[in-house]
Amino acid sequence: MIPMLQYKYATDSNPNYTTTGKSSLKFQLINQRADFSFALFSGGLSNPNLVAVSNSITFANPKAPVFPRLAQGKSWNEMTVTWTSGYDINEAVPFVEWGIEGQARMRSGAGTLTFDRSMMCGAPAKTVGWRDPGFIHTSFLKDLWPNIEQFYKLGHRLSNGTIIWSKKYKFRSSPYPGQDSLQRVIMFGDMGKGEHDGSNEYSNYQPGALKTTDQIISDLENIDIVFHIGDLTYANGYISQWDQFTAQVEPIASTVPYMVGRYKTDYGMFRFCIADTEHDWREGSEQYKFIENCLATVDRQKQPWLIFAAHRVLAYSSNYYYGQEGSFEEPMGRESLQKLWQKYKVDIAFYGHVHHYERSCPVYQSQCVTSEQSHYSGAVKGTIHVVVGGAGSHLSDFSQVQPNWSIFRDHDFGYVKMTAFNHTSLLFEYKKSNDGKVYDSFTISREYTDVLACVHDSCEATTAAS
């Protein structure tokens, strides 16, 4: 049984459909490696009865490579390219052709993976939600020159020598660590997906997803890298929604690195340390050691902007649920990690999971370390914690109590943009997805000597004897 992917009501375009029998509906189809048919049902969703089925609609090449997504590689001068096709490795050899415009092109081979129904945990992924995922290919473009525009195409070489090509894409390679250039970063979580044709789908509760996606696309020329910190598709066992999500973000992810997961990555003047909140982060754990190593090994003279991020809120949130618990955080979050943030002077920490926007003051041990709210300078006395999980999914309520460390809250869809102008100046902006306008902002001005300055619990204790 093939599941229904999208649906509309015949009364959407003609409220009198039940009496006239006439209606006109439009659907946007994406290549999912199989034919499509339209079906007419009576009885609604609760008691559907099949009335008629259309002829099949076939893509010119349903196996064609589609939906490329970029990510930073293990080193700053490496770009990972991942895409989807209908070609098994035994049928065609996957690769990426890439290079600088006007110069000789290079080809990098790709690995191929897939999965089958038996690998799924249970229903609906094993039953009505199952759909063949095709094949997922990944290639690594290495030894890139910094901050230069590169062009690329996805290719599959068939056994007869014919090459199936994707369209042409481009990206700008990453700046080298410490490079003094304009660097613009997008941060958000919990976006999900939607349909531009207005159709409905399973798990249709991400009303802001398209607004966020479209605002970022409209500003893409002014964006260098995107971080999506958890809860990507809300597929909930319906495999086709991964294709729908990758198609939705393709204009972004095919052009700039679209970062997900747990990792350490350098981007110019930034060091990003991203944690996995589904695994133990407490002191002594493998992940705690990973986090400390990431924070400790950055050269703040070259990379002054140190950013921590995780999906669940490990520090401060006045979300209704956390407020009811009385913790205002994920259990044992800041108790385990705040001494690391303080010791290594993390500038900003980002979280998703809670579906709204909230910004704290620079805070340590639940106390604001400054009364300033819009411009920060001098020594790093505490970390600014930001919940930015309002990118698309249904919004979360705030607690009725607003703690003293919570200085801006917004119950709406939005995302954050950070702009590093140089080694001493950073601009933070929170933008609403409805209009792309800035509703909260602050600046940081800081010299390297300010990062070196000792503040409470940030330097090793000393005595007269030492």
Layout: helices, strands, pairs:
Blueprint: H1 17-20, E1 39-42, E2 49-53, E3 66-72, E4 79-85, E5 92-99, E6 106-113, E7 135-141, E8 149-158, E9 163-165, E10 169-172, E11 183-188, H2 209-218, E12 225-228, H3 240-253, E13 258-259, E14 263-267, E15 270-274, H4 286-296, E16 305-310, H5 320-325, H6 334-343, E17 348-351, E18 357-364, E19 367-368, E20 375-377, E21 383-388, E22 406-410, E23 414-420, E24 425-432, E25 438-445, H7 448-452
Helix pairs in contact: 2-3
Salient structural properties:
Immunoglobulin-like; globular; 8-stranded mixed sheet; 3 domains; Purple Acid Phosphatase, chain A, domain 2; hydrolase; acid phosphatase activity; Fn3_PAP; alpha+beta; 466 residues; glycoprotein; metal ion binding; 8-stranded antiparallel sheet
